[in-house]
From TrEMBL, chains A, B:
Top-level taxon of origin: Bacteria
Name of this chain's protein: Phosphoribosylformylglycinamidine synthase subunit PurS
Localization, UniProt: Cytoplasm
Gene name per UniProt: purS
Swiss-Prot/TrEMBL keywords: ATP-binding, Cytoplasm, Ligase, Nucleotide-binding, Purine biosynthesis
E.C. number(s) listed in UniProt: 6.3.5.3
Organism: Parvularcula bermudensis (strain ATCC BAA-594 / HTCC2503 / KCTC 12087)
Gene Ontology cellular component annotations, sorted alphabetically: cytoplasm
Length: 81, 81
């Protein structure tokens, strides 16, 4: 079973890295970019018996390590083998 | 039009960040994790006239800035408004 976790800043939180990428794209002449958001995606292979167990573990991983609950939100998609 | 770009290391390229996350998850007792991959996801809003133009620009952005062609591969998904 695979868990695919996406972590993005919450709306309203300043994203300096995305701003820097936006400026760099503008400097390269890509002026069609009106908005940019950047996040991380983590793909985990899990040795678990059920989707329920996979979701439970993935949520606990997000809460404890993979996402900062104050500034970030996360989304979990499960991909059966 | 939105372009959603995912950038991952190519197979075989060492991913120290993913390794560190894997170790940290293990230390927190998450021992069901058998494999971990980490990448970035960039969502761009583009003021363009066609999907073709959006794909062309997104590919050029990847080749010039967003992905390291030696070590990384990227995937582009277009999301019409």
């Amino acid at each position: 079973m695979k868990a695919r976790i996406e972590v993005f800043y919450k709306a309203g939180v300043l994203d300096p890295e995305a701003k820097a990428v936006g400026r760099a794209l503008g400097a390269l002449g890509f002026d069609a970019v009106t908005e940019i958001r950047q996040g991380k995606v983590i793909e985990l292979s899990l040795a678990v018996e059920s989707e329920e167990e996979a979701r439970h573990q993935a949520e606990a991983m997000c809460e404890k390590l993979l996402a900062n609950p104050v500034m970030e939100r996360y989304r979990i998609d499960l991909i059966p083998d």
